[in-house]
Amino acid sequence: MQFIDLAAQQRRIRDRIDARIAAVLDHGKYIMGPEVGELECELAGFAGVRYALGCASGTDALLMALMARDVGPGDAIFTSPFTFIATAEVVALLGATPVFVDIDPVTFNMAPSNLKRAVEALQTGRPDLHPLPANFAELRPRGIIGVDIFGLPSEYDAIQGVADRYDLFVVEDAAQSFGAEYKGRRAGALAEMGCTSFFPAKPLGGYGDGGAVFTDDEALAERLRSIRVHGQGSHKYDNDRIGINGRLDAIQAAVLLVKLEIFPEEVALRQTVAGRYREGIADIKGLTPPATPAGMTSVFAQYSVLARDEAHRTTVQEALKAAGIPSVIYYPKPLHLQRAFAELGYTDGLFPVSEDCSRRIFSLPMHPYLTAEEQERVISVLRST
Ligand SMILES: *Cc1c(COP(=O)(O)O)cnc(C)c1O
Q1: Residues with C-beta less than 6 Å from any ligand 1 atom
Q2: From the CA of 370, how far away is ligand 1's center (Å)?
Q3: Which residue has a Cα nearest atom 6 of ligand 1?
Q4: Separation of alpha carbons 104 and 111, rounded Å
Q5: pLDDT by 10-residue block (mean), the chain, 385 residues
Q6: Cα 80 to ligand 1 centre (Å)
Q7: What is the strand order of the sheet 75-79 is part of?
Q8: pTM score, two decimals?
Q9: Whole-angstrom distance, CA of residue 152 vs CA of residue 174
């Protein structure tokens, strides 16, 4: 059994992908060829925003969004410690400081009540109110990165409420959630800028690295467009600002155009697969399947289950492995405990929910083509442990 079966998907669309790639080879416009603009149009339409900008990766999408807001030294960016390193890495790359905010134990996303306390603590210089990084006295609150972990949107209404109150900007890390919905709006469109990733294993993945930034704001779109190409001005060798080489390849855009055609159907299939897991796991003692709060849908980038404790998780994972079923831990170590962020001075115990989830969580095989029979096998192993 595959954890993610990209081959099954490829069998459906191989002919169309071959034809689209051949078209790129024929026209030869490998950098910013027509497929990029075509994809951006389709993506903006899908997400329901005015602008979508293709870029080289989800990491670059986040970096570009922060650069568009001139994030730099002295800026505090509030985010979840229970995410992939890229979310906080881009903050540090710009010389700014990630301020971690613990998650909700049900959604695994940043808890808005904690966020409010964290901003207040920083604003008033009170680490007794909420854990703060060692350099807190030098920081001012600037922005928030909401992370839609495992494909479930964060609580953007509440997050935006905190942002409005303290005059902060909000960026959505939709790397895992593209295709999900929040109160009738699509992931990627839930903040002033939304960032997604087309890494092959994401719900909408290419055959290489790629990403996109979404926005409704024309001025931000202009800045992002410039930042993507070395801070380009009106002329190719005219530079208005410091930027990056953050372009999406025409070949990846060609692949993504084909994958986007079947994406809505694949999102529905993911939800069917998740529904079957939920039904099978709901009454197994000691296992907690993921919840989807009212008003939201998830694309289940990962189907992540909580075991009773760390020892139970080990038992379950070993039983799955013995049955030839892969499982993966996302994420075994929250970001505040990573060596890369050691100088922020965070210690074990500061974010108990993230730390507890790291010890108990594991993800099951999840992709649109997982069959009911395969899932029965997974569930029967889970039931036996
Ligand atoms: C994958 C991922 C990213 C980074 O995307 P890349 O395309 O791999 O650079 C950022 N944030 C989250 C939550 C992710 O899962």
Answers
A1: 57-59, 83-84, 86-87, 147, 173, 175-176, 197, 199, 209, 211
A2: 23
A3: 58
A4: 5
A5: 95 98 98 97 98 98 98 98 98 98 98 98 97 98 98 98 98 98 98 98 98 98 97 91 97 98 98 98 96 97 98 98 98 98 97 98 98 98 95
A6: 14
A7: 51-55, 211-215, 193-197, 169-173, 140-147, 75-79, 97-100
A8: 0.98
A9: 9
